[in-house]
Amino acid sequence: VVGLNPSTATREKSDPTAAKVERVARAYGYDGFVLVNLCPVRATDCRTLPATVEPGLLDANLEAILNVAASVQDLVLWAAWGAPILTRPFLANAAGAITACVERFRPGWRHFGPLTVGGHPRHPSRLSYAWAFAPFDVADYLKRRVQSGLLPPADLSAFFTRPAEHREPEM
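Above: the chain's sequence. Below: its structure in token form.
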């Protein structure tokens, strides 16, 4: 699950978003899930995220996501960031970086329920259990947002033309 930013959930204590994700995952036969985020900064309200995030922190987030993706067979990614991706330019860049980084694993991207009016994959906190998964073309989504000016173009083209670097985890 690729969300927007971490909230209050931990491995030991769930929150409403993680609880909804777990319920949907179980209903669709998944034996587990990993919730990762475009932004590694914890906030209970995305409007309180900083305007920028230290590049090293974003790089560490991307490396952690790559390591998780490398460990999963038949990778399925649930795009779940919602319309708040528009609130900070680095969020769109992170979505592009994640997309490029995991492309080598040929993930099956999905969204849950109808896209928002603006065409964004819905955040799990805004879902109905009556909805279903549908295929999600994340590269097309990002390119259309850049072309329409709704997302900043900052190097997104590079995410679709250069191979992502991958380092094997140290043992």
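The radius of gyration is 15 Å.
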